[in-house]
Design goal:
One of its GO terms (biological process) is acetyl-CoA biosynthetic process. Belongs to the acetokinase family. Homodimer. The structure is a single chain. The protein is of the alpha/beta class. Helices cover about 35% and strands about 20% of the residues. A hairpin with a 5-residue loop joins strand 9 and strand 10. The longest helix is centred in the last third of the chain and has 22 residues. It starts with 14 loop residues before the first strand and ends in an 8-residue tail after the last helix.
Amino acid sequence: MSKQQPASTHTSVAAILVINCGSSSVKFSLIQPESGASLLSGLAECLNTPQALIKIKHNIGVDNDKKIETSALVAPFDHQAALNTLVNKLVQLNLVDNIVAVGHRVVHGGEHYAQPTLIDPSVKKNIENLAKLAPLHNPANLIGINVCQQAFETLPQVVVFDTAFHQSMPEKAFLYGIPYKLYQEHSIRRYGFHGKSHYFVANQAAKFINKPLEQCNLISAHLGNGSSVTVIKNGRSVDTSMGMTPLAGVIMGTRSGDIDASIIFHLVEKLGFSVEEVNTLLNKKSGLLGLSELSNDCRTLETAMLDKSHPQSTQAKLALTVFCYRIAKSIASFSASLSELDGLIFTGGIGENSSWVRQEIINQLGLLNFYINKEKNQATRFGSSGNIAINTSRSCWVIATNEEWVIAEQTAQLLKLNTAEEL
């Protein structure tokens, strides 16, 4: 992958339609795989509610200026309605003929898939069966697949799995300390997520240090509302903080991350929680939100922390301090997987934009020879990338991730499409 280029205004270029269906949203982008340029992108959110709306951004037209169009969705306000609106817009802008394939993000591929895969009935059945491991995401991913297969009957469709990059983990990293037959019979193990993001930024870091990815040893911290740390040895994931589900690992926006499993028994047996209430507590009411009792948004917490008159200032700082400590602790522990380390990567919404969080984490990693350049750290935000460490430190990069580009590129590679040529 080279540096992302601006979108071409020539509407005859071949492109991949990338679809990412979440539990209540649909992200989409029409991407030229060679350059990473987007002809059209957008987001449908608040699905399955009357507030559902869709935003579509493109620069197709006489003036070639970037346009953002927002419209409410029609009943039943669901994924189908969102994707139908997208298809209609693609027709209106004469972009349908540009689409040579559709690439779908699917959260959980279990142990079945270590590579992008062409969709067929057996693949769809496996995605459905794996919904037990990703109940909020895999069913929604399937909706996107089914709608796009109806809308683009003649186009090849490919799935790219979040878990695929981590299928290179050895048993010592992915097994839990529970009876082995639970892994053999029920596939209970660590899978890991954010695989496309970790893969993308590792590739970019390899370019920074002018080494093949296969020779790079890195630790990647994807920090956002969902956060994970991955250790990359010789270009391959060998361990990661998330587990069988995205609940495990470091503290996140609303997720607890790792806790003593006996807390669950205590909540149920002593405090009267139902299993569903515990699930909701750990996934949606914990993390930064639970600790701060204010917000899951790092920006809101930083603002409150710095405003000493804010009633939640102290608690906001506590939440952020715990968040940063757990991430630093995870990074330090993962260094045991490597005999050498080329550098550390920050990515994701928080990792790319919060200079305070990055500094707080790096300040705890002096033993690994990470030392921050405060001026570079402050300047590297809002999509910019670069090394924020001092000259005598190990490298520490901020790299803006682009998971959609990974999906488009891997879809084109699987299908052996020459998307550099005009149609």
